[in-house]
Structures are given as structure tokens and as C-alpha cells.
């Protein structure tokens, strides 16, 4: 997972390499994800929300959802 606006580790160049190397290492459950408008830390820039309230830099909701889904699928009920 990387941000589309990540200039440190650009997604277009690096995600295919990450997936390839993970599969070479035996991980066949690889999924890559590019988070729109997110940077290297998966944060989106400050903006005004739909409710008119100011939002500071925060981890992109898509990143949070992807991490939560991964943990639910990996840890499942055993993590409770």
C-alpha cells in the first residue's frame, strides 16, 4: 500500500516490484493498493470536509479501511 502522491517511493515504479519480490519469497496472497491523494505516510492533505469543517492532515480513510480488512482477514476471531 502506498500513496498516489508519494514522491519518496513512487507507486507506479515500486508496487509492481514489491508484489513481484513478495511472490518470489513465497507470499501468494499479495495485494497492492494505491491510496488517492495520499503521501508517503498515507496521509491526505488538509481540506474542508463535506460538513464544512476543516480537516488537518490525517491518515486516509481508505488506508484505515484496508488495514482493518487485512487484520480481520488475517487475525480474525483469534485476535479478540
Short description:
The chain is of the alpha+beta class. Helix content is 35%, strand content 15%.
Q: Considering DSSP H and I runs of 4 or more, what fraction of the residues is helical?
A: 25-40%
Q: Average pLDDT across residues?
A: 87
- Tell the overall outline: flat
Low-confidence stretches: none
Structural class call reads alpha+beta
> Can you count the beta strands?
6
Number of domains: 1
What about the largest sheet?
A: 2 strands, parallel
Beginning-to-end CA distance, first to last residue: 25 Å
Write out the strand line-up for the largest beta sheet, numbering strands in chain order.
Answer: 1-2
DSSP helical segment count: 2
Q: Helix-strand pattern, N to C?
A: EHEEEEEH
CA-atom Rg in angstroms: 15 Å
Strand residue percentage: 15-25%
Descriptive report:
With 80 residues, the chain is of the alpha+beta class. It is 35% helix and 15% strand. It has one domain (2-79). A hairpin with a 5-residue loop joins β4 and β5 (54-55). The chain is flat, with a radius of gyration of 15 Å. The chain starts with a strand and ends in a 6-residue tail after the last helix. The model has no long low-confidence stretch (mean pLDDT 87).
Which descriptors would you attach to this protein?
80 residues, alpha+beta, two-stranded parallel sheet, two-stranded antiparallel sheet, 15% strand
Question: Topology of this structure?
Answer:
Elements: E1 2-3, H1 11-24, E2 34-35, E3 43-44, E4 47-48, E5 54-55, E6 58-59, H2 61-74
